[in-house]
Write a structure and sequence with these properties.
The complex is a heterodimer of chains A (244) and B (263). Chain A contains 9 helices and 10 strands. Chain A is of the alpha/beta class and 244 residues long. Helix content of chain B is 76%, strand content 0%. Classes of the chains: A alpha/beta (244), B mainly alpha (263).
């Protein structure tokens, strides 16, 4: 699905969280949303999910304004995963997936749960309560929940935050493989530069609620005369002076 | 309305109860303690008061009905709070379930939680104190409908507060029913209240429900007009509750509190 964001703004009282942001994500592309903490990434994702009402601006999905969609029509094609949002801790992994599968109206639910849990290797702790799992296991379960409806748009907020390199790599590999087999447009907010370089077709850099630059990894690194994306990120976040 | 989605959300709370025996015990414990307490008080008043003479169990019946209201409201609040405590709020509100389906699911599932808590207590009261609320006969169904609607309405107001003010509103969830209890004339006739409070009390369905219950047990007569009036008042509160809930939801979207609601 094509996502187009025009002049998107969110103001809380007098604090401008997102300031006239414009971007477009072509169908089946992955866009990385980079920026320091508090730069407006999560607020932007919240507006795309319909959880936050924009103060100004439009979000178009397949050229139709998000607010003109029926809530359940559009949300059934979207999903979201974040380590900061959890699934009910007292329910088993299987129960959580069953419930969210039903909420998303997934057909052949058992088959679908079986497929996604095999792919993400979560079957071995299927009957354990979600709250008893390690961070890495929880992240994989959260990702399974976010893929249960085979979303056309997937929003990921730091999907590998606080994971060890092995599990982080597992999730990144899985996302690459998933994207190669499915039609999905992904918006990935992350602080992990390797992850962004590996998964994203292009990048949007945000600072203080505004987009400060955009392009492919190579373009941004070259444009700012740095050796890698991390240095480019630091230059953009801290300003030009520190690196000159 | 999509009943599969209503069922799915109900199933989430059913699993929660089924997965934890202490949770079931907790549901049963408080109503049972209430029944014991009010059972003994009721027994004492029956022996010592002219008003209650020959009408065994008025207070206990009132206590059971009030607990039904209390459990219905608390169940609704608890299920909503569970989503906040488990940090599942965002997942729930980005799922393709409509707000009216969320309300319908919480309303229907609250019945189950209420009955799990209250049925054992009601059954205990029969052999232990010789009191059965079933003595109220068929009109009991209408009294319970009215109480349930009002309990859910209070739940809607409290959950609207949670949406508006966040988890800090949690204490109000527990206090809301205690605030209304004195005006509800649960254990005493409305005439006991000062005149000014009587005016407010008549705006609550509780007064009409409990006045009618006493009339049924003391005078053995049923005035369906009072019962229907109580249902109508409860229904008005329910509609108001739904409107306030929607307003709070849209307010929360404007304030951006849905995305980071949690403990």
């Amino acid at each position: 699905m094509l996502i187009e964001v025009n002049n998107l703004t969110k103001i809380y009282n007098k604090y401008v969280a997102v300031n006239k942001v414009n971007f477009k994500i072509e169908k089946n592309k992955t866009i990385g949303l980079l920026g320091p903490n508090g730069c407006g990434k999560t607020t932007s994702i919240g507006m795309l999910l319909g959880l936050i009402t924009p103060t100004e601006g439009k979000i178009l999905i397949n050229n139709k304004n998000l607010k003109d969609y029926k809530r359940d029509d559009i949300l059934s094609q979207l999903n979201f995963a974040s380590p900061y949002v959890e699934l009910p801790k007292k329910l088993t992994v299987k129960q959580n997936l069953q419930i969210y599968g039903r909420l998303y109206g997934v057909k052949n639910l058992d088959e679908c749960i079986n497929e996604v849990s095999s792919d993400l290797d979560i079957k071995k702790f299927f009957e354990r309560k979600t709250g008893e799992l390690s961070s890495g296991q929880k992240n994989r379960v959260a990702l399974a929940k976010s893929l249960i409806n085979k979303p056309k748009i997937l929003l990921l907020d730091e999907p590998t935050a606080s994971l060890d390199p092995d599990i982080g790599d597992f999730i990144r590999s899985y996302l690459q493989e998933y994207k190669s087999k499915n039609e999905v447009t992904i918006l990935l907010a992350s602080h992990n530069m390797n992850e962004v370089e590996r998964l994203c077709d292009s990048i949007i850099m945000m600072k203080s609620g505004k987009i400060v630059d955009r392009g492919t990894c190579e373009q941004l690194i070259k444009k700012h005369g740095r050796n890698n994306l991390e240095e480019t990120f630091l230059k953009l976040v801290r300003g030009l002076d520190e690196f000159q | 309305m999509n009943f599969n989605k209503i069922y799915a959300l109900g199933l989430r709370h059913l699993y929660l109860i089924m997965n934890s025996f202490p949770r079931v015990l907790d549901l049963i414990y408080w109503p049972t303690v209430q029944i014991f307490l009010w059972g003994f008080i009721s027994k004492f008043f029956t022996l010592s008061s002219d008003y209650y003479s020959n009408t065994v169990g008025i207070i206990l019946t009132a206590a059971i009905l009030y607990d039904f209201l209390f459990r219905a409201s608390i169940s609704f609040n608890m299920m909503f709070l569970e989503e906040i405590w488990s940090r599942n709020f965002t997942n729930l509100f980005i799922a393709p379930i409509r707000i009216r389906e969320i309300i319908a699911s919480l309303t229907l599932t609250a019945i189950l939680r209420t009955l799990i808590g209250l049925v054992p207590a009601v059954l205990i009261s029969i052999p232990l104190f010789g009191v059965s609320i079933l003595k109220l006969g068929f009109p009991l169904v209408f009294l319970l409908i009215s109480l349930y609607l009002f309990g859910i309405s209070l739940g809607l107001f409290v959950t609207s507060g949670l949406l508006r003010f966040g988890p800090s509103f949690e204490n109000i969830a527990w206090a809301s029913l205690f605030f209304l209890a004195p005006l509800g004339c649960i254990y005493y006739p409305i005439e006991i209240l000062p005149n000014i409070l009587q005016i407010f009390a008549k705006g609550l369905p509780l007064v009409h429900i409990f006045e009618e219950m006493r009339d049924m047990l003391i005078n053995q007569q049923v005035n369906y007009y009072n019962i229907y009036k109580s249902i109508l008042i409860s229904l008005i509160y329910f509609v108001l509750g739904v409107i306030v809930f929607y307003a709070s939801y849209y307010g929360a979207k404007k304030r951006g509190t849905l995305i980071n609601m949690g403990e």
